[in-house]
Write a structure and sequence with these properties.
This protein is mainly α and 144 residues long. It folds into 2 domains: 57 residues, no CATH class; 74 residues, Cytochrome c-like domain (Cytochrome Bc1 Complex, Chain D, domain 2, Orthogonal Bundle), CATH 1.10.760.10. Helices cover 63% and strands 0% of the residues. The protein is built from 7 helices and no strands. It starts with a helix and ends with a helix. Bound molecules: heme C. Heme C (HEC) binds next to helix 4, helix 6 and helix 7.
Length: 144
């Protein structure tokens, strides 16, 4: 009976060791390092490789394209609301008619690449092409 008992204790000890419990076993620094290295790739994979894991990281800074109105208020307003630097004002249909007549492709190109005193991207350096086009559309919609 006592033999059975000590087998039981051995079995429990074996299970605890197998599970990595440090209650029964003291790991050497080298072993701890080896364990850390062994489990590290799983952590790195989840952090960098897994698109699901990386999604929440990207979400706060880029939750989809901003609206044309947002971009206008952030970057275009300074000139296109006041006429600064000779900018055609939003809502000034007379100033926009000939420009709009060039077609949206030309307006988008001029907004993205710059045109005379109109700075490239309206100085919105973190704007995507899609966002600049939305801002152009917003100005055009409000100026006809
Ligand atoms: C520093 C002032 C300034 C800022 C900021 C600015 N613009 Fe302009 N923009 C101008 C000026 C000046 C013109 C007129 C250029 C000309 O025809 O001489 C212009 C012209 C334009 C035109 C007409 C181009 C054409 O072909 O006639 C578009 C479209 C335009 N801007 C879009 C934008 C958008 C979109 C933004 C914001 C993302 C923006 N602008 C920000 C000054 C600015």
């Amino acid at each position: 009976m006592s033999q059975l008992k000590s087998w039981g204790v051995l079995l429990i000890a074996a299970v605890l060791v197998a599970c990595g419990s440090d209650k029964q076993t003291e790991y050497s620094a080298e072993q701890e390092k080896a364990i850390a290295e062994r489990i590290a790739p799983a952590g790195a994979l989840a952090m960098e490789g897994d698109p699901i894991a990386s999604a929440p990281v990207a979400a706060p800074s880029n939750s989809g394209p901003r609206s044309g109105e947002d971009i206008y208020k952030k970057s275009c307003f300074a000139c296109h609301a006041t006429g600064a630097a000779g900018a055609p004002k939003l809502g000034d249909a007379g100033a926009w008619a000939d420009r709009i007549a060039q077609g949206m492709d030309t307006l988008n190109d001029h907004a993205w690449n710059g045109f005379k005193t109109m700075p490239a991207k309206g100085n919105c350096f973190d704007c995507s092409e899609e966002e600049i086009q939305a801002a152009v559309q917003y100005i055009v919609d409000g100026s006809q």
